[in-house]
Amino acid sequence: MNSPDSARVPVNPPDTHTSSAKSYPSRPSDRRGFEIAIICALTLEADAIEALFDHHWEDDGPPFDKEPGDPNAYSTGVIGRFNVVLAHMPGMGKVHAATVASNCGKSFPSIKLALVVGICGVVPCGPAKDEIILGDVVISNGVIQYDFGRQLPERFARKDTLLEVPGRPNTEIRGALAKLEGLRHRRQLNAKIEGYLAVLQSDPELHAEYPGATKDRLFKASYRHTDDQRSCEQLGCNGELVSRSRLSTADVPTKPAIHFGLMASGDAVMKSGEDRDRIATAEGIIAFEMEGAGVWDSFPCIIIKGGCDYADSHKSKVWQRYAAATAAACAKAFLGFWIPSVTQAANVKRRCSLADRECFDQRKRLAGEPMTRGLKIEQRVIPPQTGENAATESRTHYLPLSRNKNFTGREGTIAELQKLLFTDPNGQRVALVGLGGVGKTQIALQLAHLVKKEDQADRNYSVIWMPALSMASFEQACTKMISDFGIERKGEEAPKDAFNRFLNSEKAGKWFLIMDNADDIETLYGTAEAPGGINQFIPDCDHGYILFTTRSLEVAVSVAQSNIVKLSEMNDEDAKALLMGSLIEKDQMQDTALIDKLLQELAYLPLAITQASAYMKVNEISVNEYLRILQNTDQDMVELLSCGFRDSTHYDPSQGAVATTWIVSFNQIRALHEDAATLLSITACLEPKAIPRALFPRLGSEQKLTRAIGTLCGYSFLSKREDGETFDMHSLVHLATQRWNQDDGLEKGICQMAVAHIAEAFPCDDWDEREVWRQYMPHALRLLTSVDGAHTDDRWVLGYKVSQCLLIDGRARQAVLILESVVETEKTMLAENDPPLLSSQYLLASAYASNRQTKESIKLLEHMVAIRSDLAENHPDRLASQHILARVYRLNGQIKESIKLLEHEVAVQVDLGENHPDRLASQHELASAYLSNGQMKDAIELLEHVAFRTDLAETHRIG
């Protein structure tokens, strides 16, 4: 039997005019060398793709590593001019696809295009009436989520607003597809597909042969397959077939045709001809598949799938392997038309054999020149020198991030950093600290390029940029840097040791080192279980200067002591300049009121502003439309703030999303400061402004709470007001934290913890406590109105306490809304005579009365009086219900009923002392009823008695 490897040689068919093997790109030095991702859901789909690899990098050495926590399985290799990574999905569907794509983006951050390749169900006839048969290939020019929406009583309403559907492909993809739809290039594409398909069909283990036209049967949409457990052959399906003109010759394999159009993506397999036609007609789609929508938000994406069935109940697996083969052939053919980046193209041109490379490097060594490995080295490299001549020589630099041409403002911050670093004798280590997204990396990058350009004799530095995100990223950068600098390693010396040794040596000359994203204290200093961190490899000498960027004040203090520059949001002028530089349609800046609103919503955060402008450009929407979406709902805002963008000034797209960059900090806090994470999560359930310290949860001790508050303030997630006892949370951080709680499945539990704590902390309705409960009220109301499903005793208690205070404050309408919810919930869980339920109903009846809802109040009170009729006549609860019912009767004009109840109440209370407040209250209420009934003499007699007997304060209003 032929092995798969032997069967796939040559991979490039003769008619595709490919160059020799030496034109393939070289093996990437790391995962950043991959620009193309291919994602397959089924093994048979991945088999077809791998069979078309021109080279497998696993054959040359160990496989590439991946980011910690990435569970994906990958294959790496070459297709044409590209290094490609193939991601093997663990299962079908959008959720699996989204997870795989997200993790792939983290491990392979340079991906510029993702191809989702495999099989699909096709619509027999496209919108242009072109015939689609099994084995044809569909290339997406857009995708809809046909099963994403709302199930209304009479119909299903698909969500199709801008934020709820995948956007259209970017301009590069749209241009490439438009080119391929042209006659000349479509013919070339078809020719390449035929050649690659022949290669796959030559491998018998792939089973990629054409099944035959007799197996391509399209039944009328209304004819249903009645048993899912049996095939059409077993069941004897014999319904009327739809004629297919391209299948006239049964024995001749039909060449697969290419169709460009919309694809429908959903989590359910489409197995209904009638539903297929209905959706296809309504949406203009030509195929159904299950993974594309999941990948769409992570990468620029094209879906390429072969038709294996007609998306009806007569599905079978007969066509799957052939359809997978046609899709794989099309994917490879498509890449032949895709233009690689400059870096990738240069990599292809430079590639030579390993032996030639080593000879070339050896000649370089003999000539005293640095090695050619590494793409970021300056072209005019001269080894660093020391002494008087050093300043006049050109320096080697390692700056993997490009200068941000849209950078604006921040002159004061840059000047302060320059002064601290280069003129202050104690400023060799400086930290720039601030909230994620506030612009630390961009300021450091601007300063790095400024220092690199300096021509003064005292400012001739080598500029070196190192990420401190993790030990792995630091080690990787050390490897690149020493290669670019031509630094010889000693024996088994690790790259990070060589980096440290060289920069500490005099021959390195003066240097300026940026340690970017030094956010994690454990990454810097290690732990008790794993001692040692990045800090031990950071050089410490008189000729070097280091700038750390960090979100953590704790890290800033540890690395720079008092040499700290705190960064806040942009001012109005700089924010407008940044937005204007990022927008395509500059005239939108003329609407100053609209621009001011947008910047206020974005909290003047540079990353949020840049992210918003990128979103507007990609989706071709105006500032007004973006602002409308942003202000629509909290969910819309969070989704917008989670939409990353790609540019050369960030490590990966996740750093282009302000909400995503905060999630990184949230996870660091959870790993290192559990108490601070708890405080952060609970605070997200409260109002973001004016949070009293007393509402923060008890964390075991005052010291723990103080440290947790300090941690969140150090990350700029909380800010302390001048009184020292009140705090504010950044409004956008507040939203992002809620999303964090939701994504981790913690939202309900966290909110219940918050309700329990606030219910205990909330004061009673004592008038002397009014300043306290007025402070607590906004936070309690937020919890009560936003926590769904948290039917706990604590919620009832909090609702009861809050309503009491609202009634005293004259806010009866709000009290009614809260108490109605409390009572409805308690009625489903408690007996009708249960004291907590009756207490809540009593307060609700009072709220109804205060809100002039007398009918509702009377109905509820009459029910309560009836329930409490089993109690003794002089029982306080029974009398209380009768008392308020009598009052509401009076307010409703039912004077006789009121007098009857009150006279009975006063008679029952005869055993109480004459000065007892309850007895006096009943007499006062009865006197009021007498007055309403015109019984002046009786009323005056009672009121004189009450006035004489009462010893309450003059300010106390009876009743």
TrEMBL record:
Renumbered residue ranges of the record's region Disordered: 1-29
InterPro entries, sorted: NB-ARC (IPR002182), NLR-like (IPR053137), Nucleoside_phosphorylase_d (IPR000845), Nucleoside_phosphorylase_sf (IPR035994), P-loop_NTPase (IPR027417), TPR-like_helical_dom_sf (IPR011990)
Domain NB-ARC: 411-581
Biological process terms in GO annotation: nucleoside metabolic process
Domain of life: Eukaryota
Molecular function (Gene Ontology), one example: catalytic activity
Residue stretches making up the Nucleoside phosphorylase domain: 35-295
Coiled-coil residue windows: none
Gene3D superfamilies in UniProt: Nucleoside phosphorylase domain (3.40.50.1580), P-loop containing nucleotide triphosphate hydrolases (3.40.50.300), Tetratricopeptide repeat domain (1.25.40.10)
Protein name per Swiss-Prot or TrEMBL: Nucleoside phosphorylase domain-containing protein
Source organism: Fusarium oxysporum f. sp. narcissi
